[in-house]
Amino acid sequence: MVPPVVVSPLIKTARYSALIAGIIYGKQRLEYLKPLGVEDKRIAGEEKKALDEKIRIAKEIEANQESILK
């Protein structure tokens, strides 16, 4: 097995600082995007309900038309 490479303390500090900065940035970004995602899900749910209602009405009309033709 190869012995580990000695890394400068400056490089180690820079790497860990970048890691911590990335974690903090990710946490802040998630907190920023969470409310936007909730709003998008709410809007998508409303649109889906409206679309389902239109499909239900279309099927109901189609069923009534078929019964008239028979």
Q: Mind explaining what this structure looks like?
A:
- With 70 residues, the protein is mostly helical.
- It is 87% helix and 0% strand.
- The chain is built from 1 helix and no strands.
- It has one helix at 9-69.
- The mean pLDDT is 92.
- It holds the Pfam family ATP-synt_E.
- It comes from Pagothenia borchgrevinki (Bald rockcod).
- This is ATP synthase F(0) complex subunit e, mitochondrial.
- It is found in: Mitochondrion inner membrane.
- One of its GO terms (biological process) is proton transmembrane transport.
Strand content range: under 5%
Q: Tell me roughly what share of residues is in helical segments.
A: over 70%
| Anisotropy-based shape | elongated
Give the strand tally. Answer: 0
Calculate the mean pLDDT score and round it. 92
- What's the tally of helices? 1
- Unreliable spans are none
Q: Please state the structural category.
A: mainly alpha
Order of helices and strands: H
The largest sheet is:
none
| Rg (CA only) | 29 Å
How far apart the termini lie comes to 84 Å
Pfam families: ATP-synt_E
GO cellular component, one term: proton-transporting ATP synthase complex
Organism: Pagothenia borchgrevinki (Bald rockcod)
Subcellular location: Mitochondrion inner membrane
